[in-house]
């Protein structure tokens, strides 16, 4: 940790109270400098382009562009910027997803400020920090076959439309396939998800974030 | 010109002859007339002759009678003489002798007594004659008067006499004596003859036996003998007086007139015979005269005619003929001298005409001669030209001869190339054709698909052409020549559209004589080969294309007919043939309107053929409706037809296509569909009704309410299957009989009807339940007579039954059963919908709860995190920057309070009854507190008026406020929110207003979920949701609920 240059940080969270808390916390650290705040992923990307911070503390569940997508973009455009995911969720799909997107660390919002500061510093140094829950989730996601249910691209598309409430005919129209093809996909989806009804499928899809 | 002299002469003579004949013919009637006259004359003469004969006879007879009369007188006188009276013989004798001598006509005068003895006589005869046996005597003795005896030959005199007698009476008037006179007929006759008699006339007297008494001229040998002509005698005796014709003594034909001499006795006749010829002498003479005259006239006229004709006709015509002959002989100056033709106009005309003709002929001849001269001149001219031409021709011929061989070769080559599509065959034949006339050997190479040059045809005696020659020619696309020691090889490329596709190589053995160049010939051949190859390829393409097209057309399910530009059929696929009744072979060439006869279904009038119209107008003519096609055998089909023009690449119309299909089936289907639709409409109405609600109990009510529209009945009930038992969930009509069906349960397997329906999934009809052995009678259901039931099938699973009964036996029909089944299907759907709705509701509720939990969780955890950050950081901040701490402490407090409020919310969410129990004001306040703590929004809450709402309204209003607030937090970027709930006069208004950025209601993508949820909620309580928003002006959400709505 060099004292000559402080680590430049932007915080991204859609809850103002959290941003407020984080900014206060950052004030207590001499080597960490808050250079910007964003309330959603798009803003975050913009700020990164402008400010080119060293670390981004990224909340994951945000409206418009969420944390994962923002991470992906920022990491692509600014490889030298590290992203620390800070979220209240530790489900076992989110962890690998954001890590795959390029985040270097995954911390939960039950973390102490010391752990948080430490995590930021380590991230800037290129070291990964995972909260224990995240580690657990990561291990589970690796050891257990990812509950992707082996849905094909098309089936995912169809499932996404089912979740959005479209009936088979509408799905067929949107995807330019025949109704019988849609029915086929739907029954495949049902069997892969081991469900019997659309509502079950929707619940599962939402639960496991199978669709955007 | 052709006038054989003989014939001509015959004409002439026949003219003359005719003239003569004419005259003869004229004379004939004259002759006839003459003959007639003459015959009349003869008749007349005959009549006259007869009359004369008769008159003569009568004359002589009368003369005789005169004599007799005078004799009688004499006798009377004598009788008076006394000597006689006394009978003085001597005196009488003397008297009588003197009398006899005086009157020579009397051969004798005598007197006899009554005994017949001669008393006195003029001719004393010894012995004295006795006349007693004499007829005259007897007669005289009878008569007592004058009597005339028969004519007879006198005994004494041997002469024809007639004795007359007169009696002499004594004093007593008794006959004493008979005086007699014998009259000499001859003498009488002689006297008569002094009268004028025509010459040759004869007089003959006969007695009644036909014995000749007298003849003049005298012929003693005839006297006393029978007349020589018995016929005449017969006629005379028969007719007494008249005329007769017959043969005379001399054998000539004579005319005899006769009359009786003695009228009284009829004992003698006189016959005067005349020469027949004399009778007609005059007439004959006249005739002769006539004849002679006529003959003379005839001869004269004939002669005249003959001469005249000769002069008038023969000569001129002979002249004409002579002139004609001369003309024929060539002398065109021959003319007929019209002066010599006299008087006969016709001949003159003829002569003139002849002259005219001769003249024109002469003129013609002159003209001809002239033109001949001209012609001769021309001919000589021509001959000169011809000679020149001939020279040119000769030279040409040589060239032609050469060329012909080439052309013959080329045309034969073309013929070979065109004879077959198989290029290998034809090229081989062409190669063989080249040898030996054109070259000594020939080889044809073609590029195959891999662009390798291959030998496709070769004629013998050609050495292998040097490698590379053909390739060079292909590459350069020019011909090349190659010379070996023995041969000269010429190789030309075969080019299609400028590309070389092969070569033709010909070799000629070197000879002494200079060979004629034939490179151009080879070029031409190559050209033709190229054309043939290309044609073959194109033809194959077209053929395949056509085949594919025909197959396509054949497999089209519609009838297709193609026509040329005149509307005559060129193609007809199998279906078209079947429908129209025409085979393609029969239809080709005929006009479409013969083959395809259509008329309007409505009027029966012929309608326009769309293909013909397309042909005329050059545009596609759409489907006609209601058209009837009449097939060849009279069968009629309803069809849909359309026509389109066929255009070539220049967009000219070259034909048309007619497509049509038999819509009988479709019609049938349409009809069936219509029927079905009617049913569907009925069912749809009921369906709309049934699906108009999503509440199961209402659905069930509506099912029963509407089943009567589909099938009339007396009672109806709906059963749901639960664990093998069918439970009546709804019923109607049973109350009439006091039957309580609530929760009546029937084990499916044990109830016959249900069991059967379960097994077959088919409706069940029972015409009379009393006849149905397994019918389960419950209580006193004897009013129930007929039954119909259907299973309610949902996604291939039977979930229940719909049962109807009637008090009438055999009331329900299979159609009822079908309808009921259809209705049950709808009922199933309605039930399913209601069930799904419930599920969805539950799910939605579940989801919502989940979401809320999530939101709350999220909210609380954010707050807690933030709070923990602050509480951890603040001590350290205190050390560094104490001024910033205080506001943060406030924040901390707020956070905590907010978290607490959220948790309370969470608890409330988890227990809905709490939610309802808590009053509106409190709820809203809590909500506001929680939200503002979480978000730093300033939220004001105002509640006015009554707040006792029915539970669902209470919940809904709270939820709407909650959702609105959520949206604001998420999207509005506001700092201030006002929530107002106002109730007055039965109307409640909930307003949630923020001062955020507003949005364009058209683009509500991100917010749509929230808004639609709010709208759905409002709808569910009968409230109205309004949205007021404008970009930059904030957003207001208004929910209006009327208490009595």
Describe this protein's structure.
The mean pLDDT of chain A is 86. Helix content of chain A is 52%, strand content 13%. Chain A has 10 helices and 5 strands; from the N terminus they run E-H-E-H-E-H-E-H-E-H-H-H-H-H-H. Chain A starts with 6 loop residues before the first strand and ends in a 5-residue tail after the last helix. Chain B is α+β, with helices and mostly antiparallel strands and 1045 residues long. In chain B, the strands form 6 sheets. Chain B has a 6-stranded antiparallel sheet with strand order 17-16-21-20-19-18. Chain B has a 6-stranded antiparallel sheet with strand order 24-23-22-27-26-25, sandwiched between helices. In chain B, strands 2-1-5-4-3 form a 5-stranded antiparallel sheet, with helices on both faces. In chain B, strand 9 and strand 10 (268-275) form a beta hairpin. The longest helix of chain B has 76 residues, at 5-80. Chain B is elongated and about 265 Å long. Classes of the chains: A alpha/beta (212), B alpha+beta (1045).
What topology emerges from the helices and strands here?
The complex is a heterodimer of chains A (212) and B (1045).
Chain A: E1 7-12, H1 16-27, E2 32-38, H2 41-51, E3 55-58, H3 67-77, E4 82-87, H4 94-101, E5 105-108, H5 113-124, H6 132-143, H7 153-163, H8 168-175, H9 179-193, H10 198-207
Helix pairs in contact in A: 2-3, 3-4, 7-9, 7-10, 8-9
Chain B: H1 5-80, H2 82-86, H3 89-102, E1 106-113, E2 118-121, H4 135-143, E3 147-153, E4 160-169, E5 175-184, H5 185-194, E6 202-207, E7 212-216, H6 230-239, E8 242-247, E9 253-260, E10 268-275, H7 276-279, H8 281-329, H9 345-419, H10 423-434, E11 441-447, E12 453-459, H11 469-476, E13 480-483, E14 487-496, E15 499-509, H12 519-555, E16 559-564, E17 569-572, H13 574-580, H14 584-587, H15 592-595, E18 597-600, H16 610-617, E19 627-630, E20 636-647, E21 653-662, H17 664-691, H18 696-710, E22 715-722, E23 725-732, E24 745-747, H19 752-760, E25 764-766, E26 786-794, E27 797-806, H20 814-880, H21 882-910, H22 912-917, H23 920-935, E28 938-944, H24 951-972, E29 976-984, E30 987-994, H25 1008-1020, E31 1024-1030, E32 1034-1042
Parallel strand pairs in B: 28-29
Antiparallel strand pairs in B: 1-2, 1-5, 3-4, 4-5, 6-7, 6-10, 8-9, 9-10, 11-12, 11-15, 13-14, 14-15, 16-17, 16-21, 18-19, 19-20, 20-21, 22-23, 22-27, 23-24, 25-26, 26-27, 29-30, 30-32, 31-32
Helix pairs in contact in B: 1-5, 1-8, 8-9, 9-10, 9-12, 17-18, 17-20, 18-20, 20-21, 21-23, 23-24, 24-25
